């Protein structure tokens, strides 16, 4: 089994992880900026609400599918070539968007952007797993988390400034910048590629179709989308159990620790998305603040998280992933139980509470990602990390729909309070599941040592 930790020098590793964090800033910005600009685009192009929603939905669907596809391709092809292709697609989509004059061009631009940007979530997990040994991997994941958190922090603010002072077209111009990272990736990454194997296009198509119809069902809330997704799921399960070289090997899902971590990450992504989704609604509906003012109250949480992300990774390296995970779960609980009490009070109290939530989301992702990287075989790392990131999109999409539906029936202070109480209960359940996983892991380790 090849040791991939020595494929590149220590100096190149440090430069590589910084370049990756740089591109992740723009990746997360691109996913959030257009939420702020959506009203301006809708008004200027006279779009219907359903048309406007596709500007976000089209990006989300391609982004989710692409994260798994790039992860699978990373097991076969040179990572530097995949990142080069991704950055070119991302820049091309941004150029199309900058010169777009109608709805069709905007959708085409967002799809191209997503095809390119979806290389980043897989790479953010894969590069630390492939090139950094377990004793320093947490620090590397902390640096990539810093890039993601910084993008989340500044994205809405930059979008508000650009949309107000210039024009929403310039949001696409900002997204062209990451293309400058191509020569650095090609200089710092090695030329190693995975084993040669035939691509299972049917399996890939079935997985893509299943994910697409799940996300469509969530966003459109039509039952027949879910029925189609269940049928495609059945065909996908059949395919991975019968194909000689399936897109995803069935053995991956037989790894119980991996499957439980996927469940925990889906839950973490869902409740974590309650912060950027619920907080602007809460501040607008209850505190009567404008979207831009709301983003200013949310900025400290994301900014502090970006500053602490590296420290969180170092803590995982020194004390173990479990310590970081329990800190994350504790912070989640403090955040949501506090919000359930202070809804309707000063927005400054809300700003303080969500700081704990943002830190919790970052620490939880780092801890679970580090754990996943240790339970996967080297040949499974690419697709395993891709599936790991896929749960992020599915979990957050389901959570958004459920939270929105709940607010439609119970709006106002009581509606938000009830949601935050439920999220607190989910955190407690996650803690119980995680504790059980840790207990069984320790027991298994002791048994093997005997």
TrEMBL record:
Question: Domain Major facilitator superfamily (MFS) profile, which positions?
Answer: 16-442
Assigned keywords, A-Z? Membrane, Transmembrane, Transmembrane helix, Transport
Q: Where in the cell is it found?
A: Cell membrane
Protein topology in the membrane: Multi-pass membrane protein
Question: Which spans are transmembrane here?
Answer: 49-70, 82-105, 111-128, 140-162, 168-189, 201-218, 224-240, 260-283, 289-309, 321-342, 348-369, 381-403, 415-434
GO MF, one example: transmembrane transporter activity
InterPro entries linked: MFS, MFS_dom, MFS_trans_sf
Q: Name one GO cellular component term.
A: plasma membrane
Q: Which PROSITE patterns does the record cross-reference, listed alphabetically?
A: MFS (PS50850)
Q: Does the UniProt entry include the keyword Transport?
A: yes
Note the superkingdom of the native organism.
Answer: Bacteria
Instruction: Give one Pfam hit by family name.
Output: MFS_1
The entry's protein name is: Antiporter
């Amino acid at each position: 089994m090849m040791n991939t930790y020595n494929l590149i020098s220590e100096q190149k590793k440090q430069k590589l992880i910084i370049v990756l964090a740089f591109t992740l800033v723009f990746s997360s910005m691109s996913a959030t900026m257009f939420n702020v600009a959506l009203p301006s685009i809708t008004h200027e192009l006279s779009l219907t609400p359903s048309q406007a929603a596709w500007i976000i939905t089209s990006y989300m669907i391609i982004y989710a599918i692409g994260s798994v596809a790039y992860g699978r391709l990373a097991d076969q092809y040179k990572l530097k070539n995949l990142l080069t292709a991704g950055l070119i697609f991302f820049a091309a989509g941004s150029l199309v968007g900058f010169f777009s004059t109608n709805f069709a061009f905007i959708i085409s631009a967002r799809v191209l952007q997503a095809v390119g940007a979806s290389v980043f979530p897989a790479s953010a997990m894969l590069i630390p797993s492939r090139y950094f040994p377990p004793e320093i991997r947490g620090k590397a994941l902390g640096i990539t988390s810093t890039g993601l958190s910084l993008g989340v922090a500044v994205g809405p603010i930059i979008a508000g400034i650009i949309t107000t002072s210039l024009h929403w077209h310039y949001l696409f111009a900002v997204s062209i910048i990451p293309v400058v990272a191509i020569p650095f990736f090609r200089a710092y990454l090695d030329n190693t590629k995975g084993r040669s194997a035939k691509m299972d296009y049917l399996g890939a198509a079935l997985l893509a179709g299943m994910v697409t119809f799940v996300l469509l069902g969530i966003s459109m809330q039509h039952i027949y989308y879910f029925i189609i997704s269940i049928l495609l799921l059945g065909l996908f399960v059949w395919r991975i159990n019968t194909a000689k070289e399936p897109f995803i090997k069935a053995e991956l899902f037989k790894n119980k620790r991996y499957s439980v971590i996927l469940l925990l990450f889906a839950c973490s992504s869902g409740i974590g998305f309650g912060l950027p989704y619920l907080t602007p609604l809460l501040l607008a509906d209850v505190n009567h603040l404008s979207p831009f003012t709301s983003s200013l109250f949310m900025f400290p949480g994301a900014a502090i998280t970006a500053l602490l992300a590296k420290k969180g990774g170092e803590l995982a390296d020194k004390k173990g992933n479990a310590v970081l995970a329990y800190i994350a779960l504790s912070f989640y609980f403090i955040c949501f139980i506090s919000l359930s009490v202070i809804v309707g009070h000063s927005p400054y109290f809300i700003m303080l509470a969500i700081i704990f939530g943002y830190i919790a989301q970052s620490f939880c992702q780092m801890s679970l990602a580090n754990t996943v990287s240790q339970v996967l075989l080297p040949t499974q790392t690419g697709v395993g990390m891709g599936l790991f990131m896929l749960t992020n999109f599915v979990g957050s999409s389901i959570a958004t729909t459920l939270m929105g539906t709940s607010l439609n029936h119970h709006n106002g202070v009581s509606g938000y309070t009830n949601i935050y109480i439920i999220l607190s209960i989910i955190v407690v359940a996650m803690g119980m599941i995680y504790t059980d996983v840790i207990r069984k892991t320790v027991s298994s380790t002791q048994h093997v040592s005997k």
